[in-house]
Amino acid sequence: AGFNLTFLVQFVAGAQGMPRRYADYPEQYWIYHFISTMGAYLLGFGLCWVLGVWVHSLLKGRPAPANPWGGNSLEWHTSSPPPHDNFPDAPRGSDPYDFSGWRYDEALDAYVLREEAPSSDRAHHSAARHA
Predict the structure, then answer these.
(1) What are the pLDDT digits (tens) for 11-47?
(2) Residue pair 36/14 in contact by the 8 Å Cβ criterion
(3) Does the pLDDT at position 125 exceed 70?
Protein backbone atom coordinates (compact mmCIF):
# COMPACT_ATOMS: atom_id res chain seq x y z
CA ALA A 1 0.00 0.00 0.00
CA GLY A 2 2.82 2.40 0.87
CA PHE A 3 4.67 1.71 -2.36
CA ASN A 4 1.53 2.22 -4.45
CA LEU A 5 0.57 5.40 -2.61
CA THR A 6 4.08 6.75 -3.10
CA PHE A 7 4.74 5.96 -6.73
CA LEU A 8 1.38 5.42 -8.43
CA VAL A 9 0.31 8.89 -7.32
CA GLN A 10 3.47 10.33 -8.86
CA PHE A 11 2.63 8.57 -12.12
CA VAL A 12 -0.88 10.03 -12.09
CA ALA A 13 0.49 13.52 -11.33
CA GLY A 14 2.92 13.21 -14.22
CA ALA A 15 0.07 12.16 -16.51
CA GLN A 16 -1.77 15.30 -15.36
CA GLY A 17 1.18 17.42 -16.54
CA MET A 18 3.32 17.88 -13.43
CA PRO A 19 6.87 18.76 -14.54
CA ARG A 20 9.83 16.77 -13.23
CA ARG A 21 12.98 17.96 -11.49
CA TYR A 22 11.62 21.30 -10.34
CA ALA A 23 12.55 22.76 -6.97
CA ASP A 24 9.09 24.32 -6.59
CA TYR A 25 5.95 22.83 -8.13
CA PRO A 26 2.75 24.63 -9.18
CA GLU A 27 0.10 24.79 -6.45
CA GLN A 28 -2.35 22.53 -8.34
CA TYR A 29 -0.15 19.47 -7.65
CA TRP A 30 0.09 19.80 -3.85
CA ILE A 31 -2.43 17.01 -3.17
CA TYR A 32 -0.35 14.55 -5.22
CA HIS A 33 2.74 15.44 -3.22
CA PHE A 34 0.86 15.15 0.06
CA ILE A 35 -0.54 11.68 -0.80
CA SER A 36 2.86 10.56 -2.11
CA THR A 37 4.54 11.76 1.10
CA MET A 38 2.01 9.90 3.26
CA GLY A 39 2.63 6.80 1.15
CA ALA A 40 6.38 7.17 1.69
CA TYR A 41 5.83 7.37 5.45
CA LEU A 42 3.64 4.25 5.28
CA LEU A 43 6.28 2.47 3.19
CA GLY A 44 9.00 3.45 5.69
CA PHE A 45 6.85 2.29 8.62
CA GLY A 46 6.24 -1.05 6.91
CA LEU A 47 9.95 -1.55 6.27
CA CYS A 48 10.79 -0.70 9.88
CA TRP A 49 8.11 -3.15 11.02
CA VAL A 50 9.62 -5.94 8.89
CA LEU A 51 13.09 -5.10 10.23
CA GLY A 52 11.74 -5.25 13.80
CA VAL A 53 10.12 -8.64 13.20
CA TRP A 54 13.36 -9.91 11.67
CA VAL A 55 15.46 -8.74 14.64
CA HIS A 56 12.91 -10.22 17.09
CA SER A 57 13.01 -13.53 15.20
CA LEU A 58 16.81 -13.59 15.31
CA LEU A 59 16.98 -12.86 19.03
CA LYS A 60 13.94 -14.61 20.48
CA GLY A 61 12.47 -16.71 17.69
CA ARG A 62 12.04 -20.46 17.91
CA PRO A 63 14.34 -22.31 15.47
CA ALA A 64 12.49 -24.07 12.68
CA PRO A 65 12.58 -27.88 12.62
CA ALA A 66 14.36 -29.71 9.82
CA ASN A 67 11.23 -30.16 7.66
CA PRO A 68 8.44 -27.90 8.96
CA TRP A 69 6.10 -28.30 5.97
CA GLY A 70 6.67 -31.94 5.08
CA GLY A 71 8.32 -31.21 1.74
CA ASN A 72 9.52 -34.23 -0.24
CA SER A 73 12.17 -32.74 -2.54
CA LEU A 74 15.82 -33.46 -1.80
CA GLU A 75 16.58 -30.23 0.07
CA TRP A 76 14.21 -31.40 2.83
CA HIS A 77 15.98 -34.75 3.20
CA THR A 78 19.10 -33.17 4.72
CA SER A 79 19.62 -31.60 8.12
CA SER A 80 19.52 -27.86 8.77
CA PRO A 81 22.12 -26.47 8.45
CA PRO A 82 23.25 -29.02 5.89
CA PRO A 83 26.59 -30.76 6.35
CA HIS A 84 29.43 -30.42 3.86
CA ASP A 85 28.32 -32.10 0.59
CA ASN A 86 24.68 -32.09 1.90
CA PHE A 87 24.28 -35.88 2.36
CA PRO A 88 26.50 -38.55 3.95
CA ASP A 89 25.35 -40.99 1.22
CA ALA A 90 24.04 -40.00 -2.20
CA PRO A 91 20.22 -40.09 -2.06
CA ARG A 92 17.98 -41.41 -4.80
CA GLY A 93 15.53 -38.94 -6.18
CA SER A 94 11.89 -39.92 -6.18
CA ASP A 95 8.51 -38.39 -6.83
CA PRO A 96 8.45 -35.02 -5.04
CA TYR A 97 4.66 -35.34 -4.70
CA ASP A 98 4.69 -38.72 -2.97
CA PHE A 99 4.26 -37.81 0.70
CA SER A 100 3.65 -41.35 1.92
CA GLY A 101 7.23 -41.55 3.25
CA TRP A 102 6.63 -38.75 5.78
CA ARG A 103 4.74 -38.63 9.06
CA TYR A 104 4.02 -35.72 11.39
CA ASP A 105 5.81 -35.95 14.75
CA GLU A 106 3.95 -33.86 17.32
CA ALA A 107 6.86 -33.96 19.78
CA LEU A 108 9.14 -32.31 17.21
CA ASP A 109 6.33 -30.27 15.64
CA ALA A 110 7.71 -31.30 12.25
CA TYR A 111 7.52 -33.94 9.55
CA VAL A 112 10.00 -36.83 9.75
CA LEU A 113 10.71 -39.80 7.50
CA ARG A 114 8.73 -42.93 8.26
CA GLU A 115 10.74 -45.84 9.63
CA GLU A 116 9.05 -48.53 7.55
CA ALA A 117 10.41 -49.45 4.14
CA PRO A 118 8.29 -48.58 1.11
CA SER A 119 6.19 -51.35 -0.38
CA SER A 120 7.91 -53.44 -3.07
CA ASP A 121 5.32 -52.32 -5.66
CA ARG A 122 6.00 -48.66 -5.03
CA ALA A 123 9.78 -49.21 -4.93
CA HIS A 124 9.61 -51.14 -8.21
CA HIS A 125 7.52 -48.37 -9.80
CA SER A 126 9.95 -45.71 -8.59
CA ALA A 127 13.01 -47.66 -9.79
CA ALA A 128 11.41 -48.27 -13.21
CA ARG A 129 10.58 -44.60 -13.59
CA HIS A 130 14.11 -43.42 -12.72
CA ALA A 131 15.97 -46.05 -14.72
Answers:
(1) 999 999 988 887 788 889 999 999 999 999 999 999 9
(2) no
(3) no
